[in-house]
Every structure is written in C-alpha cells, then in structure tokens.
C-alpha cells in the first residue's frame, strides 16, 4: 500500500486508520494508550516491533469486518522509514519508468524527480549509479553528448567516493564513447586507459571486451583500419558470450574490411551476420551490404539490400538514417525517393529533432527534388520547415535563391538575405 509515495510512519498509520473509518481510541483499544497513537501519528514517537505487529493485525481485522477492500497490511510496511521507501520507489518505479521513456522532455522530467529524491533522502550508491548509467546511455543514443558526459561525471563521482572500481571503469568507457563521436580521439583513448588500469586489478572479462571494442572503434574512426582490425581480431578470438556485443564486433570488423576495399571478405562477414536471428543486426548488415555494393556501383544489388534492410528495420532506432540512405541508393535505379525522405523527416521530428544534421541533409535532398519538379508549394514548405527547426539551412536557401533568380526576383532576394543572416549566425 502507498508504494508510490514517501511518507513518515505516523502519516501512513493515520491514513490507513482514516481509510478504515477508525478513531484513535478505537485503534488504541486493547493495544496501547490513545496518547501513544497520537504521538506516533504526529511523528513524535517511533513505532516498536510489537506495536507494529498489533496495529497491523487490528487493521487487517477491521478491514475484514467492515468489508473494506485493502491489501493485507504487514508490520514491516508500517515500520519502513522514509529512506527505505524512497529507495524502493527509486529502483522499482522511477528506474523502471525511465527505461521505457523515449522522448527527451518526459525523460528529463522523471530524471529531475529522481535527483530531487536523491537530495531529500539517503539513496543507496547502487541506485544512484544505476540512474546515471541509464541517463548516460539515454543521451548518448540521442546524440546529446554534452548531457551524456554530465551524467557520466555524476556517476563517476559516486563510484570514486564509494570505491566501486568496476562501475568507475564502466563510466570511463562511457566517457570514451562520447569522445569518439565528438571526434576527440585522444581523450577517448585516455578514458580507456583509465578503465584498463582499473581492470588490471579487477580482471573482469566483460570490461576487457568493452575496452578492446572501444579501442577498435576509436582507431576505426581515426581511419587507422589496420590497428582497428587488430583489436577486432583479438575480440573475435575471445569467448564473447554477450550476443549483442558479438554481433557489434563482427559488424565493426566487416566495416573495417569495407573501408580497406577488401570487399569479398567484408561481404562474407555480413552474410554471417544475416544467418543470426537478430532483426536489428540483420537490418544493419543489409544496410552495410547495400553500401558495399553501392561503392562498387552494383546498384541493383544495393537497392535490393537496402529494401531488405527496411523490412527488418521496421522499429529500429536508426530507421530514419536507413530511409535517408535508401533514398540515396534508389536514385541510382530511377525510383522516386520522395516518400522515403518524407518518412525519414517525420521520424526525425518525432524523435525530439535530436539529429539536426540528418534533418538538414533530408531537407536539402527534398529541396533538390522540388526544384527539379518545379513544385513551388512544396519548396516553400521545406523552406519554412528548415527555419522552424532551426537547422543550418544555408545550402537549401542558396539553391532556392538560385532557382528563383530570373523567375521571381523578390523571392530570390528574400532567400539571399535570409542566407546571409544565417551565415552570420553560423
């Protein structure tokens, strides 16, 4: 009862008593004095084990006699203090809810609630670490790297203060991810060095795998594919039990081979991934195969693979990127790609506009299509949308200005001036 609320012992007893339409005298009868009940309800006296047993027993009896439908009350429920309640709510309600939230605004509301509970109550370090790991991940997968770093720092402080070396190493790895995707590769490797130093004492296989994987990823992003392959080869020889990590390793290994123009080997790796029953990775493997064939100017094979990717990719978090890539591929086989681009744009807008670079690229492509078709109404819709979404619309406005030059000088001048203003901001 009251599992979603944090309240003092006395307040809980008072609320249950009133739910059962009992007076203090009726509750005290045969148990203790009315003064004891009054002191407890006003939080001036703690409830003892014996008294909690007696009160719980009486509450349950009265509820049954009056046929009031409430869950069975236990002595422990009456004795639990506010901090215990706060930790229960924190782990069973707040953390669970945060795991299901997809939108940034709602996530941040719940996160603020969680941090308020941390300030007001004694929350266990394990609960706080779980919160900040979850928040770090949430922002990372939504391209909010600065916010992800902040959550990472919060988690690191707790780990260092509580001497939790394992979780501390995890947060260093999380930091490295953010640095990798903000192209700060020196700091990324530095964070992995910190994690590896901690793991030299812990000797945890999973930590070792994560560190090697992110080292490989860092060197892949640096364009040092031979070094990256060295790390991914080590990982391929390890007994990686986590299926998702194993698939990520195989995918990155194949991607490095693609970058090195070792197309036959890369193709073989992608086909191996297709044989594993995991829709998200099958979708990604088909997308990468499509890119492989596109680079080799095998446009029909590329188009076939990207369409297969979209079939498996129905609910994948990267569906917007796949739709945009499909548009790039299908132009080579003379398919109308407007629908793919509009779908991608709709998904981007529904995801709190988290990937502004992708939105910019989609709008740029749609502007080109509408200019070619001379669809001025749709062209203006894209121009307005670009401004509302506050993306870098310089390229689109330059194209629109050029389109109207000699057709409508007023509009051409307007878009030129808007372009100049935006360039000043950029």
From TrEMBL:
Cross-referenced CDD domains: HTH_XRE
Record InterPro entries: Cro/C1-type_HTH, Lambda_DNA-bd_dom_sf, TPR-like_helical_dom_sf, TPR_rpt
Gene3D superfamilies cross-referenced by the UniProt entry: lambda repressor-like DNA-binding domains, Tetratricopeptide repeat domain
Molecular-function annotations in GO: DNA binding
Entries under Pfam families matching the protein: HTH_3 (PF01381)
HTH cro/C1-type domain mapped to chain residues: 13-68
PROSITE patterns, sorted: HTH_CROC1 (PS50943)
Name of the molecule in the record: Putative transcriptional regulator
Organism per entry: Clostridium saccharoperbutylacetonicum N1-4(HMT)
Taxonomy of the source species: Bacteria, Bacillati, Bacillota, Clostridia, Eubacteriales
